[in-house]
Amino acid sequence: MSTLHGFEVNTRLVTSGLVLIGVGTALTAGGMGLTATAIIAGTRRWVRQLETPPRELVQLGFNRARAATGAGLSAWREAEANGAVPAVVVT
Q1: pLDDT digits over 72-89, tens only?
Q2: Which one of 12, 25, 85, 86 is CB 3.0 to 4.6 Å from 79, fit for a cystine?
């Protein structure tokens, strides 16, 4: 036991507590590593089984969005030219 101006601390208990915290931290880190490894391996297997690779799916979605934006803009400009839509005034 160590004493500091009447404050007594059982150093053996403090040391034991710190050791347990260290062991718990190591076990937690190991569990997180195993979990991450399992999730990454499963994700890789799933991606390999897909008919269309994720990169192509993203490109397809981007192209669709670009086409939809162009169609909407074209329709807006056509309607504006025919007087169907009031012109937007920016101040």
Answers
A1: 999 988 888 887 766 677
A2: 85
